[in-house]
């Protein structure tokens, strides 16, 4: 306790430790949007020559900025749920004191929009959509996560579709990407809805106690797992058909092969969804994201041909 000039006691300002801030921003979650950004950059068909600083800025925007913002926002508005599910998290444990969780979310929002503005109007617009969805997902009055259908859709779009389009736009110097870029981004975003469902298995008890309607809490683990598997598989079937139609048979066969392995892994997942969701995230989802890159390389070869 310090003392002011007039002799009154002044409570010290407690700043969060850098390690706690980094944990709040959850670097492990940055990989999906950064990977999607890379897929978008590849699918654009543009050369990276002379654009490395712009590409690095885009990767930072996708992961350490926009995605990290969403994590800080979510942890602040989920602090009561985390006190049940994950009491060791930075905010419920007190390692992020006071309202610093909210302050960090606001600071990262501003940094994200600043960097996005430097990368062009289309990138800025995509970042704005991502930031709005990040806040709407966690914060009242919308709090989209209260409904697993809407909440997972918002996260899937932010993790896959928007970064993919952003990567393609950055490579095209801000120009609107080819329609096929939007098609692949939309399909893999749709499939990511199922991935988000699997991520919700770890918090079923807390979600039910706090009235959060994640799909595992709403439908039950077994039904939610079946829904997630269908949602992950169907878009990949469409990708295979589209690539074959665009003349990229080898790429289509490669993604079909990856999907067949995923289906085998899904059968095992469905035997015990709650216990095996983390295992499937490490196996089946890895094959899913490899397929994303395969499709991006296929599109790179297709552009700038016409549909």
What's the gist of this structure?
With 307 residues, the protein is mainly α. Helix content is 73%, strand content 1%.
Number of domains: 1
Structural class: mainly alpha
What is the multimeric organization of the chains shown?
A: single chain
The residue-averaged pLDDT reads 91
Q: Largest beta sheet: what is the strand line-up?
A: 1-2
Largest sheet: 2 strands, antiparallel
Distance between the termini: 69 Å
Rg of Cα set: 21 Å
Poorly predicted ranges? none
Judging from the principal axes of the Cα atoms, what is the shape? globular
Number of helices: 13
Helicity, in percent? over 70%
Topology as a string of helices (H) and strands (E): EEHHHHHHHHHHHHH
- Percent of residues in beta strands: under 5%
Number of strands: 2
Topology (SSEs and partners):
Elements: E1 2-3, E2 9-10, H1 18-25, H2 31-43, H3 52-77, H4 79-85, H5 100-118, H6 121-138, H7 148-171, H8 179-199, H9 204-210, H10 215-219, H11 221-245, H12 249-269, H13 273-302
Antiparallel strand pairs: 1-2
Protein described:
With 307 residues, the protein is mainly α. It has one domain (15-302). It has 13 helices and 2 strands; from the N terminus they run ββααααααααααααα. Strands 1-2 form a two-stranded antiparallel ribbon. Helix 8 (179-199) packs antiparallel against helix 11. The radius of gyration is 21 Å and the shape is globular. The protein starts with a strand and ends in a 5-residue tail after the last helix. The model has no long low-confidence stretch (mean pLDDT 91).
């Amino acid at each position: 306790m310090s003392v002011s000039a007039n002799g009154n006691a002044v409570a010290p300002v407690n700043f969060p430790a850098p390690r706690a801030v980094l944990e709040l921003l959850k670097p492990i979650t940055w990989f999906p949007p950064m990977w999607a950004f890379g897929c978008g950059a590849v699918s654009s068909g543009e050369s990276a020559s002379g654009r490395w600083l712009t590409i690095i800025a885009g990767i930072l925007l996708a992961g350490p900025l926009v995605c990290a913002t969403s994590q800080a926002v979510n942890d602040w508005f989920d602090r009561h749920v985390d006190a049940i599910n994950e009491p060791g998290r930075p905010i419920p444990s007190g390692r992020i004191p006071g309202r610093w969780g909210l302050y960090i979310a606001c600071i990262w929002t501003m940094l994200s929009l600043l960097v996005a503005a430097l990368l062009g109007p289309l990138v800025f617009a995509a970042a704005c959509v991502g930031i709005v969805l990040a806040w709407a997902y966690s914060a009242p009055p919308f709090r989209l996560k209260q409904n697993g259908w809407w909440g997972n859709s918002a996260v899937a779009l932010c993790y896959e579709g928007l970064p993919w389009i952003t990567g393609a736009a950055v490579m095209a110097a801000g120009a609107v990407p080819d329609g096929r870029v939007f098609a692949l981004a939309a399909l893999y975003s749709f499939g990511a809805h199922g991935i988000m469902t699997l991520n919700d298995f770890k918090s079923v008890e807390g979600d039910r106690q706090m009235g959060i309607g994640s799909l595992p809490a709403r439908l039950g683990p077994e039904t939610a797992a079946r829904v997630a598997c269908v949602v992950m598989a169907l878009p990949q079937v469409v990708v295979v058909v589209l690539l074959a139609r665009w003349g990229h048979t080898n790429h289509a066969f490669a993604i079909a092969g990856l999907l067949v392995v995923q289906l085998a892994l899904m059968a095992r997942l469905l035997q015990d969804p709650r216990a095996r969701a983390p295992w499937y995230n490490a196996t089946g989802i890895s094959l899913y994201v490899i397929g994303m890159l395969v499709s991006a390389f296929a599109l790179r070869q297709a552009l700038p041909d016409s549909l």
